[in-house]
Design brief:
Distance between the termini: 49 Å
Radius of gyration: 22 Å
Structural class: alpha/beta
Bound molecules: ligand G2I
Low-confidence stretches: 1-39, 347-372
Shape: globular
Mean pLDDT: 87
Helix content: 25-40%
Strand order of the largest sheet: 1-2-3-4-5-6-8-9
Amino acid sequence: MDSNATDRPRRSRGPARALLAGALGVIGAIAAVSLSVPAGAAESTLGAAAAQSGRYFGTAIAANKLSDSTYVSIANREFNMITAENEMKIDATEPNQGQFNFTQADRIYNWAVQNGKRVRGHTLAWHSQQPGWMQALSGSALRQAMINHINGVMSHYKGKIYAWDVVNEAFDDGSGGRRDSNLQRTGNDWIEVAFRTARAADPDAKLCYNDYNIENWTWAKTQGVYNMVRDFKQRGVPIDCVGFQAHFNSGSPYNSNFRTTLQSFAALGVDVQITELDIEGASPQTYAAVVNDCLAVPRCNGITVWGVRDSDSWRSYQNPLLFDGNGNKKSAYNAVLNALNSVGPTTSPSPTPPVSPSPTPPVSPSPGTSPQPGGCSATIRTVNSWPGGFQSEVTVQAGSAALNGWTVSWSWPGGQSITQLWNGTVSGSGSSVTVSNAPYNGTVPAGSSTTFGFTANGSAATPTLTCTRA
Ligand code: G2I
């Protein structure tokens, strides 16, 4: 765990970082306020800074704090992805079996969307925070209750949630095996049943497995989850993303092999997201390292911190967040903002590059695909493939201005042909393909994205895409 509480200059990386951080230790807080990024290249909030590379920066929100004006103004200014800290959990949304209650969850959802933010859903199947009636169930009755719960909550938010933490914390600390729980005792297939149920309930939401203590690549729990995700991808169980909670503390310290973990999971064909970040003591160096790890992995979609101010944290005694109890920005805030700004406009997510030796330089803009202010970018990923065919998803990302219509074009490298396309209008001939927005998804807010998908004949391919605004 980093112990040095100084800020770092945005250009210091790798071995030089340690040297510079040490040297700056003498200068302390004075350095922190004098560091700056070049004029014109910097955004001044976390959400806008992350959006430069197509990523989001989020926070957990508690419904009962939406009346706290300091809290709300920081949250609204800085973050563009929202997770309900407790309000979408099982005990909150289905307090009595078959009776759903979205009062508090909707308060958060509505606040987020009315302020132009997207929402991560947390969480549908978990051993903890189960209502009493569910804790008392077992066997097939519990299995069916889990399925009903997923259907009930996901249908309420159908088409409205960016990503759902479908299953939370299902692995054991230490052994690399499954955690014992009433859900696990319904049969080892409970996780894949949850994911298949979720896909059918809302095909537009990304479906994530979310856990803690899976950041360190050498830990057995990390390998256990990795093996499950690999197995799911091989067998076609629908999973789109893995959430790394990233609650770092002295018992579970940050390790620089986190980047290897993110790269390795992404290489399985899933997105990766940092979903509940907090760091005991809020070392600026450690915060910057975590951000740089995400920025180095094209399929790392974004970062969520688990609360706004230290006083809002579930571990407030550790002062683990980016704002102090008075709402002032901490050094860690500046470290995070500078790290996000150091990348500048680039594309993401894009096909995962080969795992490279650590430290990996930050993602840099690639020619021809950078979203200029007001522009757009598009990336393609293979969702599924089979002999003679494949399914792909294309993400269309708005730059710093909203899109009012978009067109994505590419050339097939090997005679592929689209058989069916959704969420877009396809035209083109021969190897050239042009896809424009459907009537309902041409408007994309600044920094946001939309997707379209298709099935095609031929071998799965990830051609270079060109995105043009209407
Ligand atoms: O424990 C930290 C997080 C670990 N990953 C999953 C997250 O969902 C989890 O969040 C925390 C919330 O931050 C806490 O706020 O989950 C805790 C429960 O597992 C939440 O704590 C609960 C308290 O235990 C309850 O007594 C309280 O009524 O918060 C409730 C609402 O304030």
